Amino acid sequence: xxxxxxxxxxxxxxxxxxxxxxxxxxxxxxxxxxxxxxxxxxxxxxxxxxxxxxxxxxxxxxxxxxxxxxxxxxxxxxxxxxxxxxxxxxxxxxxxxxxxxxxxxxxxxxxxxxxxxxxxxxxxxxxxxxxxxxxxxxxx
Length: 140
What we know:
mainly alpha; three-stranded antiparallel sheet; 2 domains; Arc Repressor Mutant, subunit A; globular
């Protein structure tokens, strides 16, 4: 990519991030939970039960910060917390039925948004977009 294309793509990515972030905040606000809590539910909904350390890494936060979030989500009956038989020090968190339902609802909102945003993209261009986003995500 030349410098002009990089600048243009940078501007487009920043604009997209700002718009998506605004949308996400408005949708999450209706749930009564924080954006960080919903992101925790999203990761567990997509990947299943996992150790606190692994979940913190996926969220890009410390285990201390995650502990506070998990405590609130356990009290809200959205998560369960347990130990593993082979390593009693490792705490594993998982979604409850209520947490799964919240994840499903939030995911449906995401799918509806993506459907709306991509309604004018032709299938061949959709394939290119998916491939490009996959490559970009791998760089993180």
